[in-house]
Amino acid sequence: MRLIIARCSVDYSGRLNTHLPLATRLIMIKADGTVAFHRDIQHAPLNWMSPPCSLTVEVPDAESASAGVLEHWRVTHAKTGDALLVRIYEVLHDSAHELGVDPGLQKDGVEADLQRLLAEQVDVIGDGLTLVRREFPTAIGPVDLLLRDPRGGTIAVEVKRRGDIDGVEQLTRYLELLNRDPHLAPVAGVFAAQEIKPQAKTLAGDRGIRCVTLDYDGMKGTESGAPRLF
């Protein structure tokens, strides 16, 4: 992983256009190609580009150079053509680190129970579905549940207690990998959680991922008194 602290501005062009004005930010470039821009508060990035994407460094034009820009970084998504133009004004820190293979999040408590209960009640996701396996292994980590759809294809389910953008990104990476396997494709995605944040629902909808809100008490056989959303 490469970590850069720099004064930069970021312009995104694609499905919509956005602009991050000049400020000091942490730029993370991960081994899988992910590029993310963070500020000093909140855990979610201000903007990012998910793989497959490429980063090229360009010499700034005369206008940018006269404004103090040292480099232009252009991050382009290989499939969609979406692009980030990063203007680097000053680099305060630049380091690279080999993190090795991560064992992934070890789940316990409610989240592990949700996964177990959902594996026993896959009809919560849809009628006629059958469980292929819990913790289905992939090269980038296990998928919580893999289900077989009788109409064809499979469904990958990511289970969270509280669903946020990071969970949607995680499921997106699994889907990109699983859909390369002709024995599984087409693979649809379901993001299941007790509570799903509005931003996560928006991102999931944009990625073609269905969201399912889980009633933990109801799945345990205890009525919670809250209306079910499935």
TrEMBL record:
Q: What class of enzyme is it?
A: hydrolase
The record's annotation in Gene3D superfamilies points to: 2.70.180.20, 3.40.1350.10
MF terms from GO for this chain are: endonuclease activity
Kindly list any coiled-coil regions of this protein: none
Fetch the CDD domains from UniProt: NucS-like (cd22341)
The record's InterPro entries line, in alphabetical order, gives: Endonuclease_NucS (IPR002793), NucS_C (IPR048301), NucS_N (IPR048302), NucS_N_sf (IPR049173), tRNA_endonuc-like_dom_sf (IPR011856)
Protein's cellular compartments: Cytoplasm
- Record keywords: Cytoplasm, DNA-binding, Endonuclease, Hydrolase, Nuclease
Identify the main location. cytoplasm
- Domain Endonuclease NucS N-terminal PH-like positions: 2-103
**UniProt-listed Enzyme Commission number(s):** 3.1.-.-
Family assignment from sequence similarity: Belongs to the NucS endonuclease family.
Main function: Cleaves both 3' and 5' ssDNA extremities of branched DNA structures.
NCBIfam families linked: PRK03298.1
**Name this protein carries in UniProt:** Endonuclease NucS
**The species this protein was found in:** Microbacterium flavum
- Could you read off the lineage of the organism from its UniProt record? Bacteria, Bacillati, Actinomycetota, Actinomycetes, Micrococcales
